[in-house]
Design goal:
The protein is mostly helical. The chain has a domain of about 80 residues. The chain has four helices and no strands.
């Protein structure tokens, strides 16, 4: 009962404060950290979607082959999502390196001082 009351109170608090205010403390500063945070949320969303599907299938008359097919499909979704996220993270890191390289002193880029 206490857990239910605490959950309802937390929901009311977040609804009243707004989503942006609730996430403001967790919002990281760097672009890489922001991207990692968003990617983590995407993975959690996919896992929750899979859990919801598993709960909906419970007790129903669905063949084992169909369950295995959907399970493999969710695994494939997760693998492709991770691949895409690795590519995105690599692109952001590369962009940061380029930005740092351009902002460096001229002699640090290999040119000689005159």
């Amino acid at each position: 009962m206490r857990k239910a009351c605490a959950a309802i109170a937390a929901l009311a608090l977040f609804a009243a404060a707004g989503e942006g205010v609730a996430r403001a403390a967790k919002h990281p500063a760097s672009r890489v950290s922001q991207l990692k945070y968003l990617q983590k949320l995407q993975r959690k969303q996919l896992k929750n979607q899979e859990k919801g599907w598993k709960r909906s299938v419970r007790g129903s008359h669905i063949s084992r082959a169909e369950r295995n097919r959907v399970k493999r499909q969710y695994g494939q979704y997760m693998r492709t999502l991770r691949k895409q996220q690795k590519v995105e993270l690599r692109q952001v890191k590369t962009a940061n390196r380029v930005r740092r390289y351009r902002g460096a002193a001229p002699w640090a880029a290999g040119a000689t001082m005159q």
